[in-house]
Structure formats: structure tokens, C-alpha cells
Amino acid sequence: MSTLYEKFGGEESIAKVVDYFYDLVMADETVNKFFEHTDMKKQRTHQTKFISYALGGPNQYTGGAMSKVHTGMNLQPVHFDAIVKHLREALLHFGISEADAGQALEKVEALRGDIIYK
Fold first, then answer.
1. Which pLDDT belongs to residue 79?
2. How far is residue 102's CA from residue 109's CA, in Å, rounded to a whole number?
3. Are 27 and 85 contacting, i.e. CB atoms less than 8 angstroms apart?
4. What is the pLDDT of residues 29-79, one digit of tens each?
5. pLDDT for the residue 59
6. Of 99, 98, 89, nearest to 17 (Cα)?
């Protein structure tokens, strides 16, 4: 059985989804303030590797634990939900099926407790 990573076309395709995702995020006043002082080129590369790994691709993610990298941000459920909404929209924009997008977002949802209220 192929992984979602393979099904989506590997890291190159996931990078396109991530670019579109961050375009949506940066246009959203609910969450764009969290990226004001972020090197977005680095962030996009980092996120591509993280999502690739989460979807069954190679583990090239070198970032810190989710709970550590989000400490001090005080992210609330509304912020997490906005990010999930934008990621879902980006996945669907690139022709990923509802079922596959749902499966991918389940992996993101599993991180909720490590990200909010930190």
C-alpha cells in the first residue's frame, strides 16, 4: 500500500501545497500575526519536511518538538482551527480527495494538545 506521501506525489507536490497553505495563512488576520517575525522561506521548507514525514515520507524533519516550538505563543483553539481549515483548503485545491485530506488532517489533529495553550 502506498503512503499518502507517495499518493500526493512526494515532497515536490507537498511543497506546492505548503506554499499555497502559507498564502492562505498570511492573508488571515486570525493567525498571520504569529508569523510576523518568521523567515517564511525557511518556514515553508521546514513545514514541507514536517508534512512529508507526517504523510509517511522520509523523516527529514529536524525541528523541535511541537510543544517546545509553540511555547509562549499561547495558541488558542480558534488559531489551531484556522490553520487546519487552511491546510484542508490547500490540499483540496491541489485535487486531493476529501477522504485523503481527512486522513492527513487526522495526523495534524493529533498534535492539537501539543500546540494549544502553550
1. 97
2. 10
3. no
4. 999 999 999 999 999 999 999 899 889 999 888 888 888 999 999 999 999
5. 86
6. 89
Residues contacting 20, CB < 8 A, separation 6+: 90, 93, 94
Q: How far apart are CA 34 and CA 107, in angstroms?
A: 22
CATH C-level class of 4-115: mainly alpha
pLDDT tens per residue, range 5-36: 999 999 999 999 999 999 999 999 999 999 99
One-character DSSP codes across 20-71: HHHHHHHT-TTTGGGGTT--HHHHHHHHHHHHHHHTT---------HHHHTT
Q: What is the pTM of this model?
A: 0.93
CA distance 35 to 29: 11
6 touches 56 (CB < 8 A): yes
Give the type of residue at 13. S
Write out the three cell numbers for 106: 487526522
Domain boundaries, the chain: 4-115
Q: Which three cell numbers stand for residue 41?
A: 522561506
Q: For 4, how many CA atoms within 13 A lie in the half-sphere containing its CB?
A: 20
